[in-house]
Amino acid sequence: GGQVGGIVEDEVNGEHRTTGTYSQDETAQMELHDGTTVEVPMGTVDTTLTLEVILTDRNVNPTNGAASGRIAIHENLTITIAGDPELQRAITMDVPYPDADNDGFVDGTRVRETTLSLYWYNTASSRWEMTLSSEVHADENFIRATTYHLTEFGAFGTGRASISGDYDGDEVSDLAIFDQNTGAWYIRTLSGTLLA
């Protein structure tokens, strides 16, 4: 731990680290340079707490468990409290993601922002798990999540977009699906014929 109120920011091996020490009699609120915020409510732990948040960015873990079939947008972060205490209350985090052109897709990806969720990495099972809650704030481009787990967190979403339309000229809507993983469109008519 350190002196209450002390915030230290540094960069180690390309990872931005922010550490702050807070009294157990206050809500710990930490905002990082990229807009990430972490809030530990008063009463979450029964001692002075030293909170550390590391922006790791790249997801290096397998995409499995609850995140299986989803796409990492590489906005990963790790949250720890010194001594790894049991949390009496859920912590809240806001994790920003880029969508500068406001097209509804995470910049540099084909991931639709409305499909984003935050997951925590269970090191015991080596699998991603859903956070207690996860909500996209599309107007402000961030995901708000709550959790009782202190570990690595990752944002994942899906890249398939489906669009209905008459693709074979029979005046009946068909289904077209874009697969972000392959970049291919799949069009299936109402009768089940695959057009593309």
What's the SSE blueprint?
Blueprint: E1 7-12, E2 15-22, E3 28-31, E4 37-40, E5 49-57, E6 71-72, E7 76-81, E8 91-96, E9 117-122, E10 127-130, E11 133-137, E12 142-147, E13 152-157, E14 161-165, E15 174-179, E16 184-188
Antiparallel strand pairs: 1-2, 2-5, 3-4, 4-8, 5-7, 6-13, 7-13, 8-12, 9-10, 9-13, 11-12, 14-15, 15-16
Walk me through what this model shows.
There is one protein chain. This protein has 196 residues and is an all-beta fold. The chain is built from no helices and 16 strands. A hairpin with an 8-residue loop joins strand 14 (161-165) and strand 15 (174-179). It is elongated.
Key features of this structure:
196 residues, mainly beta, eight-stranded antiparallel β-sheet, five-stranded antiparallel β-sheet, elongated
